[in-house]
Amino acid sequence: MSNSSLPLHLQTVPARHGVLWVRHGFKIFKRRPMALSGLLALCMLAALLALLVPVLGSMLLLMGLPLMSLGFMLATHLVLQNQNPTASVFLAPFKLTATRRNSQLALCSGYALATVLVMVASNAVDGGAFQNLQDLMADPKANDPAYEAALQAAIGDPRLFWGMVCRLSLATLLAVPFWHAPALVHWGGQGALQALFSSTLGVWRNRGAFVLNGLIWVGLIVSLSMGLALLTSLLGLGQILPMLALPLGLLLSTVFYVSLYFTFIDCFMFGAPKDLPEPPAASAS
Fold first, then answer.
1. Is 66 exposed, middle or buried (0-12, 13-18, 19+ CB in 10 A)?
2. What is the mean pLDDT of residues 116-144?
3. Model pTM greater than 0.90?
4. pLDDT (tens digit, 9 = 90+) per residue, 244-280?
5. C-alpha pair distances (Å), 32 with each of 86, 172, 225, 259
6. What is the C-alpha to C-alpha distance for residues 163 and 123, in angstroms, rounded to an integer?
């Protein structure tokens, strides 16, 4: 990747492009399913290893999330060029200029700090109800009436609802400035603060497409969950539901991250094409 900046032009796209981004995500995934799924699996493994380190590991995990989204954008860019993406896409942002590297680190640090503040604020709203529910679910006790009663009470705690509303609202607000920011630094050469502002402006100007895109992803997740639950129930195979949900969940997650590239080029570069060109030659995944 060249150290020079690409010309960026803030664009406003129709709301229907929210569907286009999802469709292109699936098309790109079909070209390199193993390579792209492998990248997500690598990210999950890195996250598990990071969580083994007390406190510092959690912060490193949060700092890595913006780079994860940028890495998948770079991977998608390579697939469009008929190349096979590797783990090097996550290191590519640090191989440009020192200025861009420092801007990316500033974004990562800012995202981690902001996420911690979101957690603190949400915990204050729910008074620890969410943490209480997590503790109960982490230590299930079968055929224990006291445990069942405690679990039902935790789920029915009204503070839990308002805490979740706070978490979702603040997390959504946090996602807006960071959605395009790493890509704006990497491809556009913008500073951290300028990238956060540009990302916010880009998402706001194209809010119709982003709302539709979000609704589609929610619909896909809910439909998949209900479909699997119904199928396993009809077949009497409820015990294998987690085994089926895991790979399908990984597939949807990979496609989501792949689709991020198209949200960026549609809002800031040359616009997402209505139809992706076919690769020059079929190749193995």
1. buried
2. 82
3. no
4. 778 888 999 999 999 999 999 999 977 667 777 777 6
5. 11, 30, 25, 14
6. 7
DSSP letter string over 146-200? HHHHHHHHHHH-HHHHHHHHHHHHHHHHHHHHHHSHHHHHHHH---HHHHHHHHH
Average pLDDT over residues 162-182: 93
Residue 74 exposure: Cα atoms within 13 Å on the Cβ side: 25
Distance CA 30, CA 284 (A): 11
Q: Are 274 and 14 in contact (CB under 8 A)?
A: no
- Give kind and range of the element (H or E) at residue 130: helix 129-138
* pLDDT surpassing 70 at residue 237: no
Q: Are 28 and 80 in contact (CB under 8 A)?
A: yes
pLDDT at position 271? 65
Give the residue among 184, 187, 220 at the shortest CA–CA distance from 203: 184
Which letter does DSSP use for residue 285 in this model? -
> What φ, ψ does residue 86 adopt, rounded to 5°?
-125, 180
Between CA 101 and CA 189 the distance in angstroms is 10
**Percentage helix, strand, coil, to 5, in the chain?**
80, 0, 20
